[in-house]
Amino acid sequence: MWEPAKRRAVYEDLYDLPENVVGEIIGGELVTAPRPSRKHAVAASRMGYEIGPTFDFGRGGGPGGWVIILEPEVAFGENILVPDLAGWKKERFPTDEPHNWISVAPDWICEVLSPATARRDRADKMPIYARHEVRHLWLLDPDLQTLEVFVLEAGRWVLAGVHAGSAKVRAEPFQQLELDLGVLWLE
């Protein structure tokens, strides 16, 4: 039986979504997920609080030189993705563009995993990030209280470390900061 071809999603389709969902365009398809859970939002916010002051603003003697953003819209070719956190070295960050999405791939991404998004983050988004040469990817799981650190080598993700609980972590590209994972979890 003949079926009409599906229309490829376009950026304007995101405007029609209810406020309580996050929309992305992956492989030409509009994909939605509910707004993050409390555990997810707390872990993402606290990660931003830990990294941002040191690397975005250079506070506390930190190196600065980065732009760190919570939930930015980023164009990866035809895909519009919304990582939980993303960071660009300042010299690579486009400060003025004629559209809402950011057209330059980040240098670092942190995805906070949840039951609704973990499969998509791993199976759909990780390969897109690799194709667009994001150098560093962190997967943060507030349910398991783990941080997986990946580095892109020759176009493939290499697991650089797995950390759990309240471990103290120094991880690329922010190894100047000792990150206490224990502060990220809602308890």
UniProtKB/TrEMBL annotation:
Domain named Putative restriction endonuclease: residues: 12-181
Superkingdom field: Bacteria
Matches recorded under InterPro entries: Nuclease_put_TT1808, Restrct_endonuc-II-like, Uma2
Swiss-Prot/TrEMBL keywords: Endonuclease, Hydrolase, Nuclease
GO molecular function per UniProt: endonuclease activity
SUPFAM superfamilies hit by this protein: Restriction endonuclease-like
Record-given protein name: Endonuclease, Uma2 family (Restriction endonuclease fold)
